[in-house]
Amino acid sequence: MLRSQDIYEGKMSRLYKEDQDDWVTVCLKYLLFVFNFLFWLGGAAVMAVGIWTLVDKSDYQSLLESSAFAVSAYILILAGVLVMVTGFLGCCAIIREQRSCLSMYFSCLLLIFLIELVAGVLAYVYYQQLSEELKQHLNQTMTGSYAQLGKDSITQAVDRLQQDFKCCGSNSSSDWLHSTYLNSSESGERMVPDSCCKTPTPNCGERDHPSNIYKVEGGCITKLEQYLTDHLLIIGAVGIGVACLQLTGAVLTSCFIYVLYKEEEEFFSDV
To answer: What share of the chain is helix, strand, coil (3-state, %, to 5)?
Structure first.
C-alpha cells in the first residue's frame, strides 16, 4: 500500500512539474512575441531616424570635414533593416521552438546590439568634436569654396543654410568680405551672397544693411551646430535605447533556449 502511495505521489509530482514547465514555456513564448513586436517597432524607428537624418537638410553634410555624421546615420539604417528582418525571423523561431533557430536569432540580436552601440557611441564622440570642427573648417569652406568651379554642392548647401536658418556668414556677415567669390569679378558689386537677403532677388546682396540681410549674432555656425547637435543626440539616444531593448530580448531568448533544452533532456531521460 505504501509503495502504491509513493508511486501515485511520484506521478502527481511529475505531472505538476510538467504543468509548471509548460506554464513557464508559454509565458516565455508570449513575452518573446511581445518583445519581437516592440523590437520590430524599434527597428522601424531606428531606420526612420537614420533616413530622416540623411534626407532632412542632407546638403549640410558637404559643409562638414568629417563623415562621422553621415556614417552614424547609415549605420542606423543598416541596423534598422536588420532589426526588422530579425524580428520576423525571431517570430518564426519562437513558433517552431527549435533551439538551433533560436540560437541563430540570439546571435543576430547580439550582432545588431553591437552595430547600434557603435552608431550611438560614434554619434556621441562626434558630438564632442562637432563644435571644434565647425570653428576650424566652416568659415574656410564657406568663403573659399562658395560659387567656385566644381563646388556646386557646397554652394547649394551654403545658400540653403543661410536661408533656412536666417543667417549670413559663418560668424557674421563681414566674413564674406574675405571670400574668394566676392573678391572676384563674377560677384559684381555684391557685398554678400544673395542668399543672405531676407527676400532673395538677383543682386540683392549689393546692400548689406540689416533691413536687407540677416545679421544674426553668432552667425550660421551657431545655428548649424545646434541643428547637428540635436540630430546627433537623437541618433545616440535611439541607437543606445534600442540596443538596451535588445539586451532584454537576448536574456528572454537565452531563458527560452534553456527551458527547451531542459524539456528535451527530460524527454530523452524518460525514454
So the answer is: 80, 0, 20
